[in-house]
Amino acid sequence: MPDMSASANLAMTHLATFAKEVDEDKVTPGVLGFIVFAAMALAVWALMKSMSRHMNKVDFKEVPDRGTESADTPASADTPAGPGAKQG
């Protein structure tokens, strides 16, 4: 292992005794991998719950543009066009 630095070589020699207990052909994420995955899952859940709360607070009512007029809109923009408004 001439390519490795001194600290990596030292770490490998200390961890080599632990690695002998594990099958060398099998690699698992271990406890740290599970903890990281669980923390990420909790963070996504909390963000989705927060987003849902914020989206439920939104009261969106679309207002038509005054600049665009179609065939079914009145010619005057300042006349009331509600359901109970008189036309004419």
**Percent in helix:** 40-55%
**Average pLDDT value?**
75
H and E order: HH
Unreliable residue stretches: none
Shape: elongated
State the total count of DSSP E strands. 0
Q: How would a textbook summarize the main sheet?
A: none
- The share of residues in extended strands comes to under 5%
Total helix count? Answer: 2
Structural class of the helices, strands and pairings? Answer: mainly alpha
Radius of gyration: 33 Å
Distance between the termini: 93 Å
What does this structure look like?
There is one protein chain. The chain is mainly α and 88 residues long. It has helices at 6-19, 30-57. The mean pLDDT is 75.
Quick overview:
With 88 residues, the protein is mainly α. The protein has two helices and no strands.
Structure characteristics:
88 residues; mainly alpha; 2 helices; 48% helix
List the helices and strands and how they pair.
Elements: H1 6-19, H2 30-57
